[in-house]
Amino acid sequence: MTTNTASALTIAKAINAGLRRSLENDPKVLVMGEDVGKLGGVFRVTDGLQKDFGEDRIFDTPLAESGIIGTAVGLALRGYRPVCEIQFDGFVFPGYDQLVTQVAKMHFRSGGRLRLPMVVRIPYGGGIGAVEHHSESPEAYFAHTPGLKVVSCANPLDAYWMIQGAIESDDPVIFFEPKRRYYEKAEVDLEDRPDLALHASRVIRTGSDATVVAYGPMIKTCVEAAAAAAEEGRSLEVIDLRTLSPLDLGPVYESVRRTGRLVVVHEAQRTLGIGTEVAASVTEECFYSLEAPVIRVTGYDTPYPPARIEDQYLPDLDRVLDGVDRAMAY
Amino acid sequence: MTVDTAATSTRGAADGDPELVQLLTPEGQRVPHERYDALIDDITADDIREVYRDLVLSRRIDSEAVALQRQGELGLWASMLGQEAAQVGSARALRTQDHVFPTYREHAVAWCRGVDPAQMLGLFRGVDQGSWDPRENNFHLYTIVVGAQTLHATGYAMGIQRDGAIGTGDPNRDAAVIAFFGDGATSQGDVNEAFIWAGVTNAPVVFFCQNNQWAISEPLERQTRVPLYRRAHGFGFPGLRVDGNDVLACLAVTREALQRARDGEGPSLIEAFTYRMGAHTTTDDPTRYRLDTELEHWRLKDPIERVKAYMVRSEMADQGFFDGVEAEADELADRLRSQCRALPEPAPESIFDDVYVDTPPTLLAQRDEMVRYRDSFADEEGAR
Fold first, then answer.
1. Does A144 reach chain B within 8 Å, measured CB to CB?
2. Inter-chain contact B133–A56, Cβ cutoff 8 Å?
3. Cross-chain residue pair B197–A71, CB shorter than 8 Å
4. Pairing of strands A58-60, A29-33
5. CB of A279 within 8 A of CB of A294?
């Protein structure tokens, strides 16, 4: 471990460093998945871990996602803390049955006697020119499932500390990693843990005219949109949800009561997405503060499109600003 | 090569079939076996009497639960009638430190592991979803989703490997896992993935398949073209077929497989060839899809009658012993009836208690909402 506690890290390297630290701190932590060993994962997030922690703790699995999740359940029941890597968002579904019918319910159906402290890491989202099944945003399926906790990091600092928080959690956590931001870099203090719970949202830019709520890969887009809006004299507050289940909407309510306007942004398709839940909750809690309906800026309700036209599907800076304009028009 | 037709090989295991391990014939004749005699040569007359008691008492738990369902005390019951030998034989092969992953039909295994019979009823009465502590008896909760538990068992076995609890030679340390499942489950992806995982990791797990010939209304021919035990070879570990109605044979083959696992030699598949004498569950009507003649055929292979015949023939027990076990079964059934009715109803707001270890404020708010809503009626009643 470096003596200088601040390092410039990419999100991918920050998750790697976080995993490394958890592996050092707790001998029960395991990393398992397809190609996580010698290769270090297709995104190199587990690079070097097998060399340093051995094949018993960092191991390649057969190519079967239900098997990955199902055997992780057994390992967790035996007292281990497995961290599973699902290679791409669109490949999680063979493991979805185990996650929904087994992982999510084990603590509940055992009357609290059993715990499954396991993490499922999923690189998600589009914008990388990939073939189908490699660019999806399936977070709402998991956030809809009681018993699972769902988070998404958006920057290297959160990536480093949130993965450690997820591993420390005694509840199962689905950890969504914004794959198109994997190589974005920032300073990360490796020792000074921020005083921010895993399941807390955070205001990352203050503003007064409208509130913009996002998470994961859309945070960068929204921050850039806020900077562009500021040049035109419009002040946007940006909130990073960080946690999708449970949602931490306290800071959103507080913000909307000031701004009166809310735009929710995500890559995932619109209907029954995270944005829909945020809109409904804000309508219940902040009805008399709202000056406009809650606007959702999202992917469309279609399958994820071919890469050459994904730019038309994904919310970008202009679509976020268009959403803000629509909110301001009321 | 020729592929055996399902009709002759998946279903045709007859007594005396060299592919079928049998130590006790349906008539109660102890037949020698070159390989497996040695695995039960320590079994005394006392042990046989204990096994008989397990068989009779677990059958009584099962029949009493069916009766309780008929009386409306249980919402559902999945009877294990006919499968007592497969379950008692395999369960009595276990050591304390071994871990069991059952389906929802392993009532005799639960009995042998020391689970309180009343606790088996909770799930079916609808007052809980599994009320025993799986760590207490190393007996996991019943799993409803068919085959899902085979992966849990395999992962648990991988944990045992990492704990260094195999191959030490210490009989109190070396541990194995046994996964129960049925013939229908062998078609599930999870079971096949479990076979693959166990094979490539050499995990200390025994896959114990009770082939009871029926998956609700679907006969074995809907699941396979080859005898199930032969599938193991394709996954790289041994598989065998045992007479599932022969408690001694089930004990012997499971002992061997568990020890192999504990010794670090990897997984095995046991196909216990048996028959589901009852309905799939109490909501099922087998007369719609199977013939009485088949039932009659299997009734002659009853797993308890052959042990009784063997004991009488070998003078291991007299009528007083059998009467004593019957009386004990009657008492057990009486107790079970009253325990069933006394199972506590869960408090409505308890649904929020164990969704998470760390309950989020959002869920606490929903609990408060429920309590407030319910209390609003209490106020009305109080005002009257």
1. no
2. no
3. yes
4. parallel
5. yes
**Given this chain, do its domains A6-189 and A202-328 carry the same CATH topology?**
yes
B238/chain A closest Cα distance in angstroms: 20
Round to whole Å and give the CA distance between A215 and A201. 9
The dihedrals phi and psi of B376, each to the nearest 5 degrees, come to -60, -30
pLDDT tens, residue order, chain B (384 aa): 344 444 444 555 666 677 899 999 999 999 999 999 999 999 999 999 999 999 999 999 999 999 999 999 999 999 999 999 999 999 999 999 999 999 999 999 999 999 999 999 999 999 999 999 999 999 999 999 999 999 999 999 999 999 999 999 999 999 999 999 999 999 999 999 999 999 999 999 999 999 999 999 999 999 999 999 999 999 999 999 999 999 999 999 999 999 999 999 999 999 999 999 999 999 999 999 999 999 999 999 999 999 999 999 999 999 999 999 999 999 999 999 999 999 999 999 999 999 999 999 999 999 999 999 999 998 666 655
A17-55 pLDDT, tens digit each: 999 999 999 999 999 999 999 999 999 999 999 999 999
Backbone φ, ψ for residue B17 (5° rounding):
-60, 125
Q: Which two tokens stand for residue B4?
A: 């055996």
Cβ(B146)–Cβ(B102) under 8 Å? no
Nearest Cα residue to B206 out of B168, B247, B245, B251: B251
Structure-token pair, residue A101:
């019918």
Q: What is the DSSP string of A157-223?
A: HHHHHHHHHHHH-SS-EEEEEEGGGTT-EEEEESSS--S--TT--EEEE--SSEEEEE-TTHHHHHH
Q: Which fold has domain A202-328?
A: Rossmann fold (3.40.50)
- What residues of chain A lie within 8 A of the CB of B162, using their CB? 30, 56, 80
Helix, coil or strand: residue A221: helix
Interface touch A170/B358, C-beta < 8 Å: yes
Q: Which of residues 326-355 of B touch A (CB under 8 A)?
A: 353-355
How many CB atoms lie under 10 A from the CB of residue A100? 18
CA–CA separation, A110 and B205 (whole Å)? 23
| Distance between CA atoms of residues A88 and A80, nearest Å | 24
Interface test with A, best of B99, B166, B190, B349 (most A CBs within 10 A): B190
Q: Count Cα atoms within 13 angstroms, Cβ side, for A211.
A: 30
As a residue count, chain B comes to 384
Say how many C-beta atoms besides its own lie within 10 A of residue A231's C-beta: 7
Tell me whether A79 touches chain B (CB under 8 Å). yes
Give the active site residue among B275, B276, B306, B310: B276
Nearest CB to B155; choose among A64, A73, A109: A73
Q: Measured between alpha carbons, how far is A95 from A73 in angstroms, rounded to an integer? A: 12
Any idea which residue has 């922690």 for tokens? A53
Distance CA B210, CA B243 (A): 10
Shortest CA distance from A200: residue in chain B: B360
Nearest chain B CA: its distance from A45 CA (Å): 24
Return the DSSP state at B346: P
Count Cβ neighbours within 10 Å for each residue of B341-353 and write b for 16 or more, e otherwise. Answer: eebeeeeeeeebb
Question: Å from A93 to nearest chain B CA?
Answer: 13
Q: What pLDDT does residue B99 have?
A: 98
For domain A6-189, give the fold: Rossmann fold (3.40.50)
Taken in order B135, B171, B147, B74, the sign of the CA dihedral is negative
User: How much is the pTM?
Assistant: 0.96
Domain boundaries of chain A, sorted by first residue: 6-189, 202-328
> Per residue in A270-317, pLDDT tens?
999 999 999 999 999 999 999 999 999 999 999 999 999 999 999 999
In Å, how far is B75's CA from the nearest CA of chain A?
17
